[in-house]
Amino acid sequence: MATPTHRILIIVTSAGEYESAGYRTGLWLGELTHFYDVAEAAGYDLTIASVDGGRVPIDPESLAHDVLADQGTAERYADRTFMNLLEDTVAVADVRPEEYDAIYLTGGHGTMFDFPRSKALGELVAAFHDQGRVVSAVCHGPCGLLETTLADGQPLLRGREVTGFSWPEEELAQRADAVPFSLEERLRALGASYSIAEEPFAPYVVEDGLLITGQNPASATPVAEAVVRALR
Predict the structure, then answer these.
(1) How does pLDDT run across 185-199, given as a tens digit for each residue?
(2) Residue 110: C-alpha distances to residues 1, 24, 227 (Å)
């Protein structure tokens, strides 16, 4: 493990809409807040960065009243100081990995459009991995791992145990016809050993050394707990 900084970097999407449908999208807010709650309580300083920097789009469905209440996100959404953190984020290209102990890639369907296309994000994730720092992601966040190539020229995901948003969950979310690809299929195609929970939307986390992934929004809290354990 690299020298501890007691800081964690959180990456969020800059994409606010689908390309083949009119749906709005962006960050799934609870996947940020649940991780943030755990890591902050454990004493870590957190920085939120986005692919392009600036204001972060939020998936409107993650702001529905029942979702905010059921997922325990309402308090953070009502906190003006916290929500202001999403108004002017640093760009991924301007981040120095040596300043952080871990990186966490949040989800939301927006990540499917900008995470895999961001060369800067792929290089950043590779640097975290190659420097012996924790790499974590949840739900659609693993889209940011798809184009990550390590210093030895190998895909980060080859031969690794991972999870991420499943195709059955995509169908249940009624986005199967709108997403640009199946995350499940892409992870398998890169040589990853992909697994999921027995029931859709149940919490599920896979730990493979310093690579930690969660399947869906309900997995954000246990991913955060796993990251904190790994750092300690």
Answers:
(1) 999 999 999 999 999
(2) 31, 9, 23
